[in-house]
Amino acid sequence: MPRRPAPWQDRHMKISADLRAFSERLGHEFSRPELLRRALTHGSIASTTRPDNQRLEFLGDRVLGLTIAEALFSADRAATEGQLAPRYNALVKGETCAAIAREIGLGEVLKLGRSEMMSGGRRKEALLADAMEAVIAAVYLDAGFETARGVVLGLWSDRLANVETDARDAKTALQEWAQAQGMSPPRYVQIARTGPDHAPEFQITVRLDDGREASASGKGTKRSIEQAAATAMLEQIERTP
């Protein structure tokens, strides 16, 4: 009579090798692998039998927000709300979520429709950020808040340690740099706005007098995307003064 696999072996048999490798990079072994599969399923390939990750994205955003807010609050008991807010925004913004998604190879395991895949969906900032939040929700539903908190703190640890640098007001820094070069203040141009009113997505380009441009896109307020564009411009300036 065939020997029945041990429970842990049975769990591993239900998850593909690429998802198992991703779980290791994430730092969590799923007891319910279907949650991870859903978190990695984009709307372009979703169906009635394979739901997309949008509901998980909604939940994961809140789990991430509470974890980061608590970590910042505990790390600096003397900080005012005005000091905590920019640190928080720097850590939960779409660009940060997307960067962490790239670090753990999330794009490699995303389940996309053919058209989205052909248009470079695995590299798109907004798509990666949304999926990262969905994965956090999947961990939360699989093992509870403390486990999800541990995963977030592990992935965000370096950024939490350097949050003062990341939280600097990029628009102010860029304006000061431009003025020091004898230029006019940077100009921010809204290239596009999509999505519903309650969750708009912006594409913003910042332009300098010397012809340089940098862009950013994603969900959030218009100002937050302008800040992201300013950050991109500052990084460009650092590479090519």
Automatic annotation (TrEMBL):
GO terms for biological process: mRNA processing; regulation of gene expression; rRNA processing; tRNA processing. It is found in: Cytoplasm. It is an enzyme of class 3 (hydrolase). Keywords: Cytoplasm, Endonuclease, Hydrolase, Magnesium, Metal-binding, mRNA processing, Nuclease, RNA-binding, rRNA processing, rRNA-binding, tRNA processing. The active site is at D61, E133. One of its GO terms (molecular function) is ribonuclease III activity. It catalyses: Endonucleolytic cleavage to 5'-phosphomonoester. Residues 19-144 form the RNase III domain. Mg(2+) binds at E57, D130, E133. GO terms for cellular component: cytoplasm. Homodimer. Digests double-stranded RNA. Involved in the processing of primary rRNA transcript to yield the immediate precursors to the large and small rRNAs (23S and 16S). Processes some mRNAs, and tRNAs when they are encoded in the rRNA operon. Processes pre-crRNA and tracrRNA of type II CRISPR loci if present in the organism. NCBIfam families: RNaseIII (TIGR02191). This is Ribonuclease 3.
